[in-house]
Amino acid sequence: MIRLQRSMLEGLTGPAITPQTVCASLQQAIELEHATIPPYLYALYSLDTAKNAAIAQIIQS
């Protein structure tokens, strides 16, 4: 299960935003993207596109 760290969001909304907090938040966003891509690709490639074209389009979007 993917869990988001609230501290990453809170660190970007205050007046004391530093380059380090921005970089840390961006790194977390990259890791989240990399964690979600494989399940979506697995789902996409396991679909029968002849029967599930609408679902495949949603996953590709």
Task: Please characterize this protein's 3D structure.
The chain is mainly alpha-helical and 61 residues long. It has one domain (6-60). It has three helices and no strands. It has helices spanning 6-10, 19-46, 53-60. α2 (19-46) runs antiparallel to α3. It is elongated, with a radius of gyration of 17 Å. The mean pLDDT is 82.
Structural class, by secondary structure, is mainly alpha
Average pLDDT rating:
82
Number of strands: 0
Radius of gyration: 17 Å
- The helix content is 55-70%
Whole-number total of structural domains: 1
Instruction: Please indicate the percent range of residues in DSSP E strands (runs of 2 or more).
Output: under 5%
**Unreliable spans:** none
How many individual helices?
3
SSE order: HHH
Query: Which overall shape is indicated by the principal axes computed on the Cα atoms?
Result: elongated
Q: What characterizes the major β-sheet?
A: none
Distance between the termini: 22 Å
Write the layout of secondary structure elements.
Blueprint: H1 6-10, H2 19-46, H3 53-60
Annotation keywords:
mainly alpha; 3 helices; 0% strand; 61 residues; elongated
Give a quick precis of the structure.
67% of the residues lie in helices and 0% in strands. The protein is mainly α and 61 residues long. Helix 2 packs antiparallel against helix 3.
